[in-house]
Write a structure and sequence with these properties.
Keywords: Oxidoreductase
Strand order of the largest sheet: 1-2
CATH class of the largest domain: Alpha Beta
Number of strands: 8
CATH architecture of the largest domain: 3-Layer(aba) Sandwich
Catalytic activity: a hydroperoxide + [thioredoxin]-dithiol = an alcohol + [thioredoxin]-disulfide + H2O
Mean pLDDT: 88
Helix content: 25-40%
CATH topology of the largest domain: Glutaredoxin
EC number: 1.11.1.24
Enzyme class: oxidoreductase
Radius of gyration: 20 Å
Protein name: thioredoxin-dependent peroxiredoxin
Length: 158
């Protein structure tokens, strides 16, 4: 996450970490993150949740993984919260699997464009590639929203 912080900052995204460890563990953990990724700095806050109350509320508990004391460990969860304070997207990986930050950035770009332009992005879409106009947009509205023109390429509706 810290290595991708500049990409998130370009998009106006504020990062916040949540961990079931205590604050002193975070201090040491940040050292590890910064050592593993030279030149990278953890500049975002990390919330300590040693009683695991927040991870339960946010459905971030891995039901299959346990720590040495037998308690469930957090999954590798990530929630994208919109300006309206509502969750727009959630990723939930098992504790054993790291997150794909390139996919998170791609999803952010898709969410941002979809919120502004009444479009949807296809699987594996990347910025600059074709998008799909939302079905709720009429042909007349599409001409106004997309004056540069559109390509109708769906054989099922022609």
């Amino acid at each position: 996450m810290a290595a991708h912080a500049p990409e998130f900052a370009k998009r106006g995204v504020k990062l916040l970490g949540l961990s079931c460890d205590d604050v002193s563990s975070h201090v040491e953990w940040v050292k590890d993150i910064e050592a593993y990724t030279p030149g990278c700095k953890v500049t975002y806050p990390i919330i300590a949740d040693p009683n695991r109350e927040l991870i339960k509320i946010l459905n971030m508990v891995d039901p299959d993984e346990k720590d040495s004391s037998g308690r469930s460990v957090p999954s590798r969860a990530l929630h994208i919260v919109g300006a309206d304070k509502r969750i727009k997207l959630s990723f939930l990986y098992p504790a054993s699997t790291g997150r794909n930050m390139d996919e998170v950035v791609r999803a952010l770009d898709s969410l941002e464009r979809a919120s502004r332009n009444k479009i949807a992005t296809p699987a594996n879409w990347k910025p600059g590639e074709d998008v799909v106009i939302s079905p709720s947009v009429s042909d007349e509205e599409a001409k106004t929203l997309f004056p540069q023109g559109i390509q109708d390429c769906w054989p099922s509706i022609q």
